[in-house]
Design goal:
By secondary structure, the protein is an alpha+beta fold. Helix content is 52%, strand content 14%. The strands form 3 sheets. Strands 5, 6, 7, 8, 9, 10, 11 and 12 form an 8-stranded mixed β-sheet that branches. A 4-stranded antiparallel β-sheet has the order 4-13-3-14. The longest helix has 38 residues. The chain starts with 21 loop residues before the first strand and ends with a helix.
């Protein structure tokens, strides 16, 4: 056996939720990606609101030009005027913060219900300090340009009412409007891309049929008696609502075993490949309509059935085998014959590459899978429960649906898409309100 070295590392459990993705022992992201994404969206929306304030403040400059002229005539210097207008901006922002806090308190229960979270507006002084810090930063950004613009007005021209916005001022204002709507367009494009991504995920052929697949766990009474379990499966198949029944192990949606304990003809001693391991019973591949590209599915149970194995295309390619059917490999020290090769199928998330995997057959495993052939699932479940209770009356039965398991893999993306639509709507609304305010003011001046 070749010399190998392994290294162990520790990481805090508190980082599991946000930084839970590791590849080859290296931190490779996690849910923190979504946190950073929505932080970016929030900053963009805040910038749009600041641009609105800047545009409307400078647009109203002509109304305040005489005030500026009188104060300058009485000796007010530029820093004093700038400070006054900055104070006004901070007051506006703090009032907006109070309004936002109250509005968030009203909407937060619905948001928690939508996301399945239990967020609170009060989680310590740190959050309050962050909110105040963001408000002060927004006030500085929103108030700086209007304050500088107003404090630079000529006192003589202001008193005569001759301060009209110059070409430079109009150019800056138009540039800010363009900036607003550029961000809005980016939001719209982002929503479209996310919608297309979700449509692709929902319509992508996974390589097997997960629809109408029901499964449940059974107890040791069935698992320990092969003959009784096969009779149980046959009774399930006799139901008119059921076409297939088989046993398997592990949750298929990305939660299955793995091993590197394989050897095959021509293997380099230094080669180490991690294979996904799926323990299945007779008829499992048929129940999921998994297509075979070579050989056949597992033969009927017999004394040597456990000596058979089926690989996917990725595994055969990784091992470099040609004409693999009939070749002998060794798994955990036991020789097994390759009887078939399946098409590459997506048991894991579509974000993950298809990994080399194999199907290892056992006569009985801890889960039973049923392929239903009816839309009346409630009647089908009742019929399955009735048969199960004849064999194991004291074991509680909980049904699960395979399509639900795979849908849960993309629950975060579904929420991301819906929240992105809401945020894009908010950004567009704020931009339109700012443009409407400018248009109304221009019309009033004329």
């Amino acid at each position: 056996m070749p010399n190998t070295s392994k290294s162990l590392f520790l990481r805090p459990y508190t980082s599991q939720h946000l930084y839970g993705k590791y590849v080859q022992g290296q931190q490779a992201g996690g849910r923190i990606v979504y946190v950073r994404l929505f932080m970016g969206i929030a900053i963009a929306i805040l910038l749009i609101a600041c641009v609105n304030f800047m545009n409307l403040s400078t647009a109203h400059a002509t109304r305040r030009s005489k005030e500026v002229g009188i104060k300058k005539a009485l000796g007010a210097r530029k820093p004093l005027l700038t400070g006054q207008f900055m104070e006004e901006a901070f007051v506006h922002v703090l009032l907006a913060l109070v309004g936002a806090y109250l509005l968030t308190a009203i909407l937060l229960p619905g948001f928690n219900q939508f996301t399945g979270k239990s967020l609170s507006l009060w989680s310590g002084w740190q959050l309050l300090l962050v909110m105040l810090g963001v408000a002060l930063a927004a006030g500085w950004v929103a108030g700086s340009y209007p304050a500088l613009y107003l404090s630079r007005l000529s006192p003589i021209r202001s008193l005569k009412g001759q301060n009209q916005p110059g070409t430079r001022s109009l150019t800056i204002r138009r540039g800010l409007v363009v900036f607003q709507f550029t961000l809005s367009v980016i939001f719209i494009l982002g929503v479209i891309i996310i919608a297309q991504q979700m449509a692709y995920i929902q319509n992508k052929d996974l390589g097997f049929n997960k629809d109408q697949i029901i499964y449940f766990s059974h107890d040791y009474v069935l698992e320990d008696d092969t003959d009784t379990y096969y009779t149980f499966l046959e009774d399930l198949r006799q139901l008119p609502e059921v076409s297939k029944a088989a046993s398997f192990s592990h949750d298929l949606a990305g939660n299955h075993g793995g091993t590197s304990g394989l050897t095959w003809p021509g293997k380099d001693p230094d080669t180490r490949i991690e294979f996904g391991s799926l323990e299945v019973g007779p008829g499992f591949l048929d129940a999921l309509s998994v297509p075979m590209v070579a050989g056949s599915t597992f033969p009927p149970p017999s004394s040597d059935t456990l000596a058979k194995i089926i690989f996917n295309e990725a595994a055969i390619a990784a091992m470099g085998l040609t004409d693999p059917v009939g070749k002998i490999i060794t798994l955990w020290g036991e020789p097994k014959e390759i009887v078939g090769v399946t098409k590459n199928i997506h048991f894991e998330s579509l974000y993950e590459p298809i990994t080399p995997c194999f199907f290892n057959m056992y006569p009985v495993l801890e889960k039973t899978l049923v392929k239903a052939e009816t839309e009346n699932l409630s009647a089908t479940l009742a019929a399955i429960r009735a048969i199960h209770d004849r064999y194991s009356p004291n074991h509680p039965l909980t049904f699960q649906f395979m399509d639900d398991d795979f849908a849960k893999q993309y629950a975060a993306e579904q929420q991301l898409g819906q929240l992105s639509r809401y945020f894009a709507g908010i950004a567009i609304l704020i931009s339109c309100l700012g443009l409407l305010g400018l248009a109304a003011f221009s019309a009033q001046r004329r």
